Amino acid sequence: MKKKRTHQRSAALEIANVINSGLGKPVLRLASDPELKIVRIPTPSLTINRITGGGFSLGRHVELFGDPSVGKSVIAMGTMALSQQRGNICALIDPEGVFDPEWFTHLGGYPEELVYQRPDDAEDVIGSLRMLSEMAIKGAPLEVVTIDSISAMVTKEQVEKDPREEERVASQARMMSRALRVLTTRNKKVLFIWTNQLRSNIGFGSQFQPNVTTGGRALGFYATTRIEFKKTGQVTKPKQRAVKGKLEKKEVKTGDWIQVRAEKEKSTRPYQQGAYIFDSDKGELDLASEIIQLGLEDGFIERVGNKYEYESIDGEIIREFEKAFKARIMDDLEIQGEMVDAITDTTHQMSRMDSEE
Questions:
Q1: Residue 317: its pLDDT value, please?
Q2: Which domain holds residue 164?
Q3: What is the DSSP letter of 95?
Q4: Whose CA is closest to 225, among 40, 36, 32?
Q5: Are the C-beta atoms of residues 84 and 110 closer than 8 Å to each other?
Q6: Which site among 187, 190, 217, 349 is 20 to 30 Å from 307 CA-CA?
Q7: Are 199 and 272 part of one and the same domain?
Q8: Are residues 300 and 230 in the same domain?
Q9: 95 backbone dihedrals φ, ψ, rounded to 5°
Q10: Are strands 89-93 and 317-321 parallel, antiparallel or unpaired?
Q11: 121 and 228 share a domain?
């Protein structure tokens, strides 16, 4: 416990007040100001909440990048849905034009309350982002803005130029660099979630870094959090399929094991990672697999032979094979709630320990 240093605090406050008075506006304050406290908002993934210290930080940039069809948009949309459920307003910038209101509803969101833009070009995107952050400063209850995705943002120069002609190099990267300087300086409250894709690096140093994200390097510098998504294995289920006029039981891919890694995390400890199943049939994360993964790490779920075991708060011993154990987690909401609360509590404890180090 640090000793209170009343004299030094008073001196620091006096310096700030003198400079603020001289400049005619409150530009300096003490670093203990409550407004500087990191406020995290939860994502729909217990695993991502764990590796980010409890969720994404408000007032920051977050970049989600990696392999295709790994659930980057699900994380972004699900985070907005949870924000809406807490009574906030969110906005979606959709250069790809792939937003589905029914899918957003399935994730728990309210399309009728979501501010939406299908931009003509990247300059439209940046103009909207600037105005949205200004409205949040003035008191609008705007919490999350998602840009899905950077790869689909085309600059006005690219739109107007004949695609058969050679264009100037890196016009998108230059635009992103200029825009992020302004957005980061002005933004105080809004969480910007950017989804991005990987491209083959054909430039110098490609042997050391074979893949790079689109849009240049600026977002990598300005983002507080960068999470990489990588497929590490398929999930299959036996299904009936017609083969040469006969029904046969075949192993059919229904999802992937996804490894998520905090490639950059300036609000807590970086380089943490975890894994979950993305169910491509349902278009959502497999909550039961997340609970089992984190429950094993936290010690309240045990693997006994080929079965998983959990003792509930009431003392009930649940011991089942994987399929039945997952079904119990999803069907018994009381047991599910116990497990989620235990994981969330551990996540918060770990976050507090990180902040005290």
A1: 97
A2: 37-283
A3: T
A4: 40
A5: yes
A6: 349
A7: yes
A8: no
A9: -60, -30
A10: unpaired
A11: yes
